[in-house]
Predict the structure.
Amino acid sequence: MRGFTNANVTNEGHTCLDLTMKRHYFRSIVGASLAISLGFPLAISLRASEFVYVANSYSNTVSAFSIDQTTGALDSVPGSPFATGGRVNFSVVADPTSQFLYVANNGSGNIAGYSINQTTGALTPISGSPFGMADRPQSVAVDPTGRFVYTADWGGARGNKVKGLTINQTTGALKGIPGSPFSAGSGAYSVGVDPAGRFVYVANENADTVSGFSINQATGALTPVPSSRFATGSKPDSVFVEPTGKFAYVANWAGGTIAGYSITQTTGALKSLSSSPFATASGPSGIASDPTGKFLYVANQFANSVSGYSINQTTGALTPLPGSPFAAGREPISVAVDPTGKFAYVANFLDNSVSAYRIDQTTGALTPGSSFSTGGYAFWITVTQIP
């Protein structure tokens, strides 16, 4: 997941063009209209209990869709796309109760917050949004209690940090945690929280490491775990803790691999799996799993595909799924799985689209379905379910 910024924003001495050339040269696509090729039957379901949200980095908006629970097809939520009030939107996440949604605005150095309409999925800006309590937020995560937000702040003199914020449980407004920010490694790029809410992990793309922290359950403050920082492959792009909390995985964007780790349950320290790293296609970026932690998926940006793996529940080792890798659109950046584990969705950066897949519940294999239009340069995708 390689970031780019507006022309007036610089990163570690690099201009927008420099960062873009790190990924590859791409043409500006303004007002492009994508033909929607339906593989799943389209069914309008504005009252669906699941919603898909996509951060569109070029158009500074969030696209919102409802999910048809039978087919997996997407239907645009009324009012979508929704303006973020910031520039260069790189990451989007919902809180565990699906009341609030947060977007990392890297180019403007703030976090956009919304309340989620529990019936339609429409977004309404939270009072005070966007919240200017991050310097260069590249990634945003919410702890499983829904009390804390963490951002990975990437690049520049004030980057290389992870910031902590508290969530007002009534309004969704954000407030800085005492002691924040907390020092991470060079190029803090991605942040993830373990499913028990004990630990935070940050992938440091310039240092080829992962920083680990324990969470103070009362305040949300972070303390480095023992022996942090942990070695990865080249240019770690995304860090993900699978649903059981036993294993962590890091996509090494430049190395074409996934690094796997077991998590020491008492301290949060990471230990490399004996069979790690695991091969992917070119440019592995966002990682997701099914809700049970049986299957793992990674978007391969430069191979236009998604790699799928089964997770050994004892060792954490990854084995490629039948038919993997699965075709996606142009430059898939991120992948998300719906809470039922029936469908997967991939954000295609250069296609301004989301690809939908049906998941075989036995094998984990993906069956391609529809493609749905988003805003300019779809970057990050998340799926949430209304309780």
